[in-house]
Every structure is written in structure tokens, then in C-alpha cells.
Amino acid sequence: MAVSESYDFSKNRNEFLTTALRKAKLIGAGETPASDLMDIAILECNLLMKEWQNLNYGLWLHRRATLFLESGTAKYKLGTTGDHCSADIVETTLSASAAAGASSITVSSIAGIVDNDVIGILLDDNTLQFTTVNGTPTGYTVALDAALTGAATSGKKVYAYTSKIPRPNKVISARYKQGNYEYDLIRMTETEYDRNPYKTMAGVPGQFYYSPQMPDGEFYVFPVPNIESAVITLTLQFPVSDLDSATDDLEIPSNWYTALLYHLAIRLADGSGMQISQITAQTASAALQAARYDDTEGSGVQFTVNYDYR
User: Fold this and answer.
1) pLDDT band at residue 310 under the 50/70/90 scheme
2) CA torsion, points 271, 277, 279, 281, in degrees to nearest 10?
3) Which letter does DSSP use for residue 61 in this model?
4) Beta bridge mates, 76
């Protein structure tokens, strides 16, 4: 039996929306939608995907990111103009000591480090100095846009990343990490954080609160960290990408295509006063139910032993 062994089925924005308009009977087979009709379909599709995300659909939008802590800082901005938090962290170490004032460092590996990356070097005083990479690294040498403000001994951690995370809709979980030590932080509500009379107390963070403000979300930790070298690993729900260009792919798995296609067709038909058949409505409902079932995260099974000494 000959099979393609291809698993990358996808449709771009205009291909998908054209199919939805045909399902809604707003255009015929082989017809190209007028620009104003396509604009309506783009708007409705973007709105529908955002609406579904509010209903917690989309495990594929959960990603991990690393937030670098600062001593004495309780609030961190999460977003493209926020603090140092990225989903594409590259980690290496210094392979040679660097003196204060050095404009380049020697690292164990330059894999994944490119020109203009943000780079953080852990100095001997345990502060993390951030600057940017100046030019393409060569060999094991990375040139810096700003000289080191302190000495850094061989073996110290070096972190690099290309871009900050987009503003997350939600923080699913947060884990404090220092060296090889890592544990979960306890989530606080807005009321719990606001009523906490010890917000400025220094120590090892054990709780967090997230407020999805605009344009960057606000992430609070308590107690306030008292060291520089710790990080928090975040599991975040990122927003689904907008459909801005005709060739943009939909940021959903292909097993969600049928559900989105039929529900979008219903919305488009309804907005134009067209009648939707019972079969179309039933197909939309069944497809969404199946997609949601596949989108459910499984949970482990726990066994409890009850010792009865009677």
C-alpha cells in the first residue's frame, strides 16, 4: 500500500475563508469572493478564534517561557515591550573568565546565538547583566554591545534569546528555579494579592499573581526575590495569531479545521440572512465536540492505600 507519509496538511487564510464562504452559500463553486466579502470573512474568523480561546480551547497555544528575576523587584511586565522573558532561551556557560570592561566573552557553545540577540551574563556578584550581541559570533567568541560591568568567572551561566514573548492571555503555571532546584508557585487572586500587607517582604518567591493588562501583562511574585540569579519557568496561554495576510496559515491543528469551517460558515450565513441547513448545524456541533475532546489534557491516575488496623 502506497501512502504519502506527509503530515503537514494545512490551508492558508484565503483558501480557508473561501471554502467557508462556499459552505455558507455566499459564493458558488469556482467563484472568487469580492474584497468586501473577504474582509467580512477575515473579521469573523479572527473574532471566532479569539472567542474560542476565551472558552479555554487550544492546548496547542500553551508554551513555556523563562522569566529572569531581579533582586528587590516584585512586578514584571510580560509582553513584547516588557521585561526579560522569552520562549526561545539559549543557555551556555563561559569557557574563559572575563574581566570587568570586557567587550567580548568566550562561551562553551555559540549554537543558537545570533547577531542582535539579547544576551545575559551572570557576573561574579550574582547579578545578571543584559546587553545585545554585536555581530555574528565566530568560533566561541561573542562580541557585546555593552562592556561587562563586573568580572565573570569561567563556568558562569550565559543566556541568549531573540525575542520576548507576546502578551499572554493566562499564566497556566509558574515554577521557581534556582540551579537544579525547582518547585511550583501558588497562584494568588487579585483580591488575595491586594490584601497582602507584606508585598515588599524579601525572600524566596512562593506565590504569584497575573493581571493581563495592556499592552503588557503584569506578573507579581511574593515574597520579593532577594537574589539575582533565579528564574521562573512559566507555562503560558499565548494568543492565537491574527490572520493578517492572505498566505497566513491558521494557527490551529488540522483536526480543528472542520469545526472552525462549519461554525464560521454559520456565522457568515447568519450575517447575510442566509438559512443554514440542519445537517450543517449538526456537523458543526459534532465537529466541535470531537475537537474539544481531543483538546482535553489527560490526567494521571493516583492510588490511595487505606490501612485498616482493626
Assistant:
1) very low
2) 30
3) G
4) 219
9 contacts 254 by C-beta, under 8 angstroms:
yes
Q: Where are the beta strands (DSSP E) in 186-269?
A: 186-187, 202-203, 207-211, 217-222, 224-225, 231-237
Listed range (48-57, 121-130, 163-172, 183-192) with the worst mean pLDDT: 48-57
Model's pTM, two decimal places? 0.83
144 in Cβ contact with 104 (< 8 Å): yes
Where along the chain do its domains lie? 18-28+35-58+252-269+278-294, 70-82+168-237, 89-162
Helix axes 278-294, 257-271, angle to 10 degrees: 140
219 near 75, Cβ under 8 Å? yes
The class that CATH gives domain 89-162 is mainly beta
**What b/e string do you get for 188-208 counting C-beta neighbours within 10 Å, with b at 16 or more?**
beeeebeebeeeeeeeebebb
R_g of the chain computed on alpha carbons: 25
Return the amino acid letter for 116: N
State the pLDDT confidence band at 296, using cuts at 50, 70 and 90.
confident
pLDDT at 297: 66
What pLDDT, in 10s, does the model give residues 157-172? Answer: 999 999 999 999 999 9
CA 275 – CA 282 distance, rounded (Å): 14
Q: Rounded distance, CA 225 to CA 37, Å?
A: 53
